[in-house]
């Protein structure tokens, strides 16, 4: 257990390059190239996290100021996803989950049931968290392990179905994102996009970085968009001119630096992906290509993801004040909205307007579930001695990951909730929509064109 805790204490930008380096050697990539590619990947991922930390350090105080101006005080503290991750890895489920998920992944690959090689071990905590929740609710360790396996399998399949979209629409080849916090919302994005397609006028509204550039010229450049959004947030936060301009320049920097860091990560990943492709062609002639898993932070390199996520932040605060039953003000998890919305952007082909429309019900769902689960998460945090905030003794939850609808639904199923069982057809519809979108997209590719919608 101590050894596992030590390994899991490595940052993602350290652990992932180590795993990738080992895989590279196993598939006969020369040690020098394997080392260079792995380190380049790690540098890109570290750069992404550095920029995200910079974003949080600038946006966080602005959001806090915005909330304080309302004078409202909600009883649940948003402690963010790190508290949930720490809780997951502090549990006995985590010890079992790593070898189990690796084994499930290997079996599915060997049986051609998945194309995703899930080496992003740190993000297994998303699977482990469900197991921890089920064990707490049922007292049954084996049910908890089964729940962990179920969400891992669903996530791997969704990762397979989204990978071609990521390659064609985001330009990241040979990768997939099997992370619950992101992948959950691709089916919702697909169905939401299909609904909007049937609404006159709204279906004709389209805005992405390319169309904004064409219409507004230099004003449509990502650096200008970031500056304007930063100034807007600064004004809402009640900042003075100096504070407004500083926040504007900070977000302009984020809009430029995140895509640059994503490019570095992809530069390191490309030789590994090509090596895996050659290896599979030698060992399994005719086998479809495989995808390497990466952290969803890579998707934040897409300008539409950044723009939509930033616009959703103040909108989420506004929704928190008006949604009946909500008891949490988004704070620590607010910037994680960019991860949440990334797959919606993917499903809508980078249409910011559609993603914002679809993002509203997603935010509402997150608010309601995270509020509902607050007492449960608080008891778990006390059980595993995870501190939400020093000196705080009230209710705690996580706005985005604590409100994740897929994890919550599976949790309710394992609890024996009749309504959760009754909603099985809805889950089947969401999964079918994702599979159908994938098949339609692949057919469009095979015919020589790329469909603009799913």
From TrEMBL:
Pfam families, per the entry:
EIIC-GAT
What is the name attached to this protein's record?
PTS system, galactitol-specific IIC component
Q: Which UniProt keywords apply?
A: Cell membrane, Membrane, Phosphotransferase system, Sugar transport, Transmembrane, Transmembrane helix, Transport
Species name for this entry? Caldanaerobius fijiensis DSM 17918
The record's section on InterPro entries has: EIIC-GAT, PTS_EIIC_2, PTS_sugar-sp_permease
Q: Which GO terms describe its biological process?
A: phosphoenolpyruvate-dependent sugar phosphotransferase system
What is its subcellular localisation? Cell membrane
Any one GO molecular function term: galactitol transmembrane transporter activity
Q: Which PANTHER family match?
A: PTS SYSTEM GALACTITOL-SPECIFIC EIIC COMPONENT
Cellular component, GO, one term:
plasma membrane
Highest taxon, organism lineage: Bacteria
In the bilayer, the protein is annotated as: Multi-pass membrane protein
Provide the PTS EIIC type-2 domain boundaries. 4-435
**Record bears the keyword 4Fe-4S:** no
UniProt entry tagged with the keyword Ligase: no
Membrane-spanning regions, if any?
A: 6-27, 39-64, 84-107, 141-159, 179-196, 216-239, 245-269, 290-323, 329-348, 355-377, 418-438
């Amino acid at each position: 257990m101590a050894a596992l805790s030590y390994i899991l204490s490595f940052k993602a930008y350290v652990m992932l390059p180590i795993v990738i380096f080992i895989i590279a050697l196993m598939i006969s990539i020369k040690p020098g190239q394997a080392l260079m590619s792995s380190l380049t990947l790690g540098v890109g991922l570290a750069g992404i996290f550095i920029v995200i930390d910079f974003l949080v350090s600038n946006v966080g105080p602005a959001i806090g100021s915005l909330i304080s101006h309302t004078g409202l005080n909600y009883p649940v503290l948003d402690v963010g996803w790190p508290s949930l991750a720490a809780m997951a890895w502090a549990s006995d489920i985590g010890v079992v989950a790593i070898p189990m998920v690796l084994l499930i992944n290997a079996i599915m690959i060997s049986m051609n049931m998945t194309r995703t090689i899930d080496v992003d071990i740190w993000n297994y905590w998303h699977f482990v968290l469900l197991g921890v929740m089920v064990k707490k609710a049922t007292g049954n360790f084996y049910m908890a392990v089964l729940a962990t396996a179920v969400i891992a399998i669903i996530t791997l399949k969704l990762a397979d179905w989204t990978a071609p979209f990521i390659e064609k629409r985001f330009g990241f080849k040979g990768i997939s994102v099997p992370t619950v916090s992101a992948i959950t919302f691709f089916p919702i994005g697909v169905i939401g996009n299909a609904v909007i397609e049937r609404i006159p006028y709204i279906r004709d509204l389209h805005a992405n970085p390319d169309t904004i550039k064409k219409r507004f010229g230099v004003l449509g450049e990502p650096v200008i968009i970031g500056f304007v959004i930063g100034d807007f947030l600064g004004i809402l936060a009640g900042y003075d001119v100096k504070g407004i301009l500083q926040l504007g320049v900070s977000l302009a920097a984020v809009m430029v630096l995140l895509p640059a860091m994503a490019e570095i990560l992809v530069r390191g990943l490309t030789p590994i992906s090509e090596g895996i492709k050659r290896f599979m062609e030698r060992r399994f002639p005719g086998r479809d290509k495989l995808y390497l898993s990466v952290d969803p932070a890579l998707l934040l390199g897409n300008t539409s993801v950044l723009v939509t996520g930033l616009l959703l932040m103040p909108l989420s605060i506004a929704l928190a004040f008006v949604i009946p039953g909500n008891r949490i003000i988004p704070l620590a998890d607010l910037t994680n909205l960019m991860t949440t919305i990334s797959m919606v952007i993917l499903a809508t082909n980078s249409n910011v307007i559609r993603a914002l429309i679809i993002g509203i019900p997603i935010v509402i769902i997150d608010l309601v579930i995270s509020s509902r689960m607050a007492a449960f998460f608080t008891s778990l945090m006390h059980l595993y001695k995870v501190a939400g905030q020093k000196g705080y003794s009230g209710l705690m939850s996580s706005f985005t990951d604590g409100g994740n609808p897929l994890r919550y639904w599976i949790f309710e199923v394992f609890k024996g909730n009749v309504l959760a069982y009754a909603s099985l057809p809805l889950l089947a519809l969401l999964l079918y929509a994702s599979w159908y979108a994938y098949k339609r997209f692949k057919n469009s590719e095979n015919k020589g064109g790329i469909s603009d919608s799913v």
